[in-house]
Amino acid sequence: MNTTSLSASAAVLFSSAVAQLLLAGCVLFQIIIVETLRRSKPFSFNPFFKTLNALLLSVITSSIGFYTALGFFVMSSSTAFALQLASDLCLCTMTHSYISYAWLRSEPMIHFAAHEHAKTLRLMAKSIPFVVYLQLVPSVLLVIDPAYAADGVFPLARFLLLGVANLLIILFVTLLVYLLIKFLNSSQPVDQGNDRYTTIAKYSIAACAWNYITLIIYLIGAFCMTGDNAMLTLALGDASLTGTAATLTIMKSALNNEIKQQQKEIVGKVDPANEKLMPALRTQIATPVRSNLRKSESSSHSRRSSIQSVHFDECVLDMESKARRSISSRRESDVSHREAVARTRELGSRNIPAFPAHHVFHHTTS
């Protein structure tokens, strides 16, 4: 193998690792600064252990390990089988985390668009990782006895395991994209006034698109290229996986920006005199919601419980929005009452018969 080609392939892989480090920094910024400190919450490590945050961080950190180990493996002229095992383990972890993340993020939309297919997709999301981790068996055997590399059956078995795993992943991604498109084309929104689900669906489809790009590059490298060109093409295919992590990171930022924008719109519609009541109101709203979620999670692990826990912030935001609208509505009612009373007095001063004051009050407040 040409040294120049090996260096180019390793450079592509190490560059991808650096890109993943930058994505990790972006995700940490979103969790620590945007989701915690800017929302006046005390700092804690609990946000890192939320299911979606943990899975996204797992996708990115395992990608860093994958690119780093594979880069050193390529530079070692593909003889350090321990590095190959490390890269395969990171790749399997990344795949597992991505499939779980994609399913949890898309679950509410899938149930809305095609409830009958949700069970199939959930089963695939839970079973595919077992097939993915079977790819580690050949790598483990190579570490135990490098002589397996000379066996003609061994590369074939490795290729078959890789092919089956990738086929199942593509089937999962294809079904997911189909159902998300069906959701976007549906005429009835999941939640009136809340387009977070639309944002999630669009970015999820974009993330899935990178899987097809990666597959195409792999096929070109495996069947249309030979020698040094094949090695470099496969490295480019590995690097394209960064697009998936980047899309998920951008989606997280977009969702946080939507929450921030909705809060600004709500605050702008509320009388400043009532704004001082909102911190206590938010606490009153959040406390029973958290309590109900804890009871729901401890008593059952049903689909509805998991969706509620995943979208807790949206639930609190929606209830807070309704409370703010209620305050504004009461204020408008008070204004209408004062105007009606003033009108009654004006009519009385002109000696024109008018409704009694108590009737006016009942009419304006009903």
Keywords:
single chain; 366 residues; mainly alpha; 14 helices
Number of helices: 14
Structural class: mainly alpha
Biggest sheet overview: none
Would you tell me the overall average pLDDT? 77
β-strand number: 0
Distance between the terminal alpha carbons, to the nearest Å?
84 Å
Question: Rg, please?
Answer: 28 Å
What does this entry look like structurally?
The protein has 366 residues and is mainly α. Helix content is 82%, strand content 0%. The chain has 14 helices and no strands. It has helices spanning 3-34, 51-75, 81-113, 115-133, 136-144, 153-185, 196-223, 227-239, 242-268, 272-275, 278-299, 303-310, 312-349, 357-365. The chain is globular. It starts with a helix and ends with a helix. The relative contact order is 0.09.
Topology, element by element:
Elements: H1 3-34, H2 51-75, H3 81-113, H4 115-133, H5 136-144, H6 153-185, H7 196-223, H8 227-239, H9 242-268, H10 272-275, H11 278-299, H12 303-310, H13 312-349, H14 357-365
Helix pairs in contact: 1-2, 1-8, 1-9, 2-3, 2-9, 3-4, 3-5, 3-6, 3-7, 4-6, 6-7, 7-8, 7-9, 9-13, 11-13, 13-14
